[in-house]
Design brief:
By secondary structure, the chain is of the alpha+beta class. The protein has a single domain, classed as Hypothetical Protein, Haloacid Dehalogenase-like Hydrolase, Chain: A, domain 2. Helix content is 27%, strand content 23%. The protein has a 6-stranded mixed β-sheet with strand order 5-4-3-6-8-7, with helices on both faces. Strands 1-2 form a two-stranded antiparallel ribbon. β4, α2 and β5 form a beta-alpha-beta unit.
Length: 119
């Protein structure tokens, strides 16, 4: 989605850039340092995960009307510009890692914390 992300109701452009494939793969490799986190990658049709029973995977699928694709390694499965990458985990697991998750990617990506998800 190189043209941006549009609010489906209002037509307002919410973001006018996306994560390039190389940065997405680099970030997903970075997240491998924390196996207790559950990265979820959204391509607009599917969400990619290693385990559909992990934290927030099925909620994200239902809330965004996306199919779930189980993969053995998310970083190796990204051959596209992701709509978003979510790092899902319960707050007691996620919050202590937030600074480390962002480190090195602050200038390459935008981070938003929403409950127990980091976008």
């Amino acid at each position: 989605m190189a043209d941006g992300f549009e609010d489906a109701t209002t037509g307002e452009i919410l973001f006018d850039s996306s994560i390039d494939e190389a940065t997405a793969v680099e970030f997903l490799r970075h997240l491998e340092a924390w196996p207790e986190l559950s990265p979820i990658v959204d391509d607009g049709e599917f969400i990619y995960t290693t385990d559909a029973s992990r934290h927030k995977v099925m909620d994200e699928s239902r809330n965004n009307n996306l199919k779930v694709k189980i993969v053995s390694n998310i970083a190796e499965s990204v051959h596209f510009r992701p709509v978003k990458i979510l790092t899902a985990a319960p707050n007691e697991i996620l919050v202590p890692h937030l600074a480390d998750i962002r480190r090195g990617f602050e200038d390459k990506m935008s981070f938003v914390q929403s409950g127990s998800l980091v976008l």
